[in-house]
Amino acid sequence: MKLLAMMLLLLAPAAALADESAAQADKDAINIFNSTCGWCHQGNGRVAGGIGPKLMDSQRSDEFIVNRIKNGKEGAMPAFGAQFNDAQIQALLRYIRNLKPEK
Fold first, then answer.
1. How far is Cα 19 from Cα 2, in angstroms, rounded to an integer?
2. What is the pLDDT of residue 25?
3. Contact 63, 91 (CB under 8 A)
4. CA–CA distance, 27 with 78 (Å, rounded to integer)
5. CA-CA distance, 90 to 95, in Å (whole number)?
6. 17 lies in a domain?
7. Which of 3, 14, 75, 80 has the greatest count of CB atoms below 10 A from its CB?
8. In a domain, 6, yes or no
9. 25 vs 2, 4, 42, CA distance in Å?
10. Region 25-30: what's the mean pLDDT?
11. What is residue 73's three-state secondary structure?
12. 3-class secondary structure, 28
């Protein structure tokens, strides 16, 4: 029992650090989206009518969205796999999945 408690104490800082990293990546995702994606995905991804499609309520799978961010689509969307790391791409995915109508 003591061993389990000690292991949990040792793992807690790593989990907290991971949570902090994810929280920072989520904050960065807003800036990344606004400066990179928002040019084509209008209304911060909430509305149709831009060059790129509306992202809010997308029926595409997470795997599809991650792949599209990384690899782009010829003639439609540039690839960002070399520009963004995996944490940033996952944060962009969370941003897209959490989009709600603006009030």
1. 26
2. 73
3. no
4. 23
5. 9
6. no
7. 80
8. no
9. 35, 31, 22
10. 84
11. strand
12. helix
